[in-house]
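Design job #97: recover the sequence.
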């Protein structure tokens, strides 16, 4: 029994890939089946009591014509009260149950979407814009819920209500019912054509909404650039276009949707008129029936209007909701760009030697960024990566961090392929300081502590002191408890970089990666930080990228990387003696002569 897959999974496997609707329904019903079953039962009661109330109308009319039958009057009166009370209670129960199941589904889907997002590698975020993701996560789960609600309410409550009412109609006036059954579906058919347009317009509207979010987001994060380059008119132009697009699409959408309702109104009016006339004319010698029967029929017919209208619009709502559902499943099914190996093992403790074996890499699959790099970064030593911009230095660090996997070749830490290592053990080994420091909206203390959640306050302050960050943190209005706004916009580049270095200090990892870690510092703080870095790189495998050669002259080893290949490798003295690329770079930076060689 335990090996056998549950029915829903077996079903899911058999579904064609594009049956998103079936998939959504199966997933949701399986998980919330009790709620949906109870809600469905309540809906059946709603349908039954609605039909009964239409039938009662006839009883009321006929009873009123025989008021002397007191017993019947009381029975009918009590019956009406009971039926309406019953209907109200059943309606309440199904509404609450549906809402609860729906809210649960939205919550679950949003969590699923987000955890899926967290599992994606950096490459995924290079190609998916944040505003798009924002929209998908917030809107698509709601759309899924709307689709489920519409289907359950439509197929159970509305459909059975309609069936019940039609049954009452036939019971009271079979001939008139036949005629109305021909008119009704013809009207519904007229609506089908509108549906296709709605689907298209809805997809466009979502896209327009994405553009609005993008513009606002870029204005906020890029506020300085916008101001500095006077980009306000251009941004406002972009916004204008997007807003107008959404507006005109929303109008189009409303026009399409709104057209369905008057259409039904007209048809209903015509239908009632014909009923009145037909019942008086008495065609084919049909007896017109009692006034009660006619009243009951007309009531049932009118009551059928609402569920029939909703059923006819059901497809519009489902079609538009499916746009969101597709978005949701696209995101949930997006191939994972970087996965932990299935049988991942923690990295064995070691001195922290990093090695690359014939590593090839490309971001987009055709332009090669690293062309067979083989290099060893000895444990406990500092190796400097130098070379022209765009040569692949940062990319090499990305591969050591396993933000991407090499297309070919291996990255090893202490002889173990990092592809087979568990993510946590790999991340624990490495500290990284980059050009830009991302700060979360939390306090300075919390931002620093990210590097090591169990660090004590003293340890954090100690690390900040080593990184020469303590001085300026102390001067902030709230010290270490100062809230950092959206990505720390009130801190200078150098201050943020020092926070980043403090994080690395706190991390105490055996491997330290520095990518232009001192580039944003003024020369005074650079001297201080370089001194700090010299201290923390003691006995730590360090790979440092720096444009200023002054930063790398103390390195134990230099690698010259150009166009994805390592052209020169050795100690500073060896490379200067080689009189090659590094020497040329050195001469440019130190003014030609031999003066700075030592
Ligand atoms: N996320 C990315 N997606 C696509 N191409 C990239 C990405 N990052 C860098 N590149 C490209 O890879 C090459 C190497 O970049 P990079 O490693 O940053 O060089 P360096 O750090 O030596 O200046 C460049 O041609 C750059 O355009
Ligand atoms: Mg770089």
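Job complete. Output follows.
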């Amino acid at each position: 029994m335990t090996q056998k897959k549950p029915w829903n999974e077996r079903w899911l496997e058999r579904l064609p890939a594009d049956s998103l609707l079936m998939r959504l329904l199966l997933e949701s019903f399986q998980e919330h089946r009790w709620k949906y079953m109870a809600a469905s039962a309540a809906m059946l009661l709603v349908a039954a009591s609605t039909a009964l109330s239409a039938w009662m109308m006839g009883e009321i009319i006929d009873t009123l014509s025989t008021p002397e039958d007191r017993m019947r009057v009381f029975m009918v009166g009590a019956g009406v009260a009971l039926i309406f009370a019953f209907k109200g209670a059943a309606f309440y129960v199904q509404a609450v149950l549906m809402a609860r199941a729906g809210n649960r589904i939205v919550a679950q889907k949003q969590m699923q979407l987000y955890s899926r997002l967290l599992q994606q590698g950096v490459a995924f975020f290079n190609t998916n814009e944040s505003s798009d993701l924002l929209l998908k996560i917030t809107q698509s789960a709601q759309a899924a819920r709307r689709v489920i609600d519409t289907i359950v309410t439509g197929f159970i409550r509305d459909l059975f209500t309609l069936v019940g009412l039609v049954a009452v109609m036939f019971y009271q006036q079979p001939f008139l019912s036949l005629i109305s059954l021909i008119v009704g579906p013809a009207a519904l058919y007229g609506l089908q054509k509108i549906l296709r347009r709605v689907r298209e317009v809805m997809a466009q509207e979502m896209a327009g909404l994405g553009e609005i979010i993008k513009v606002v987001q870029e204005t906020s994060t890029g506020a300085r650039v916008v101001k500095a380059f006077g980009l306000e008119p251009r941004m406002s132009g972009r916004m204008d276009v997007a807003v107008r697009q959404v507006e005109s699409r929303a109008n189009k959408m409303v026009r399409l949707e709104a057209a369905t309702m008057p259409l039904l109104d007209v048809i209903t009016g015509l239908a009632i008129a014909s009923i009145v006339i037909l019942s008086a004319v008495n065609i084919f010698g049909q007896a017109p029936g009692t006034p009660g029967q006619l009243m009951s029929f007309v009531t049932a017919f009118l009551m059928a209007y609402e569920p029939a209208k909703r059923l006819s619009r059901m497809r519009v709502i489902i079609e538009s909701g499916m746009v969101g559902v597709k978005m949701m499943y696209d995101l949930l099914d997006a191939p994972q760009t970087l996965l932990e190996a299935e049988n991942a093992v923690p990295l064995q403790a070691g001195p922290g030697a990093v090695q690359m074996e014939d590593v090839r890499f490309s971001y987009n699959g055709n332009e090669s960024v690293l062309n067979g790099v083989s290099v060893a970064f000895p444990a406990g030593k500092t190796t400097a990566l130098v070379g022209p911009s765009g040569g692949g230095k940062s990319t090499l660090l990305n591969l050591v961090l396993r933000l991407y996997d090499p297309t070919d070749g291996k990255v090893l830490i202490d002889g173990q392929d990092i592809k087979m290592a568990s993510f946590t053990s790999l991340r624990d080994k490495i500290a990284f300081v980059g050009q830009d420091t991302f700060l979360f909206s939390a306090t300075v203390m919390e931002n620093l502590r990210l590097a090591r959640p169990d660090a004590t306050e003293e340890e954090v302050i100690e690390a900040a002191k080593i990184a020469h960050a303590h001085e300026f943190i102390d001067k902030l209005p709230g010290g270490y408890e100062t809230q950092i706004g959206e990505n720390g916009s009130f801190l200078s580049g150098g201050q943020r970089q020092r926070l980043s270095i403090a994080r690395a200090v706190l991390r105490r990892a055996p491997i330290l990666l520095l990518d232009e870690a001192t580039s944003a510092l003024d020369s005074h703080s650079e001297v201080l930080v370089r001194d700090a870095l010299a201290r923390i790189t003691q006995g730590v495998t360090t790979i440092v990228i720096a444009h200023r050669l002054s930063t790398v002259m103390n390195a134990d080893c230099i690698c010259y990387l150009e166009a994805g290949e390592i052209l020169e490798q050795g100690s500073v003295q060896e490379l200067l003696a080689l009189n090659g690329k590094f020497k040329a770079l050195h001469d440019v930076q130190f003014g030609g002569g031999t003066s700075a060689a030592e």
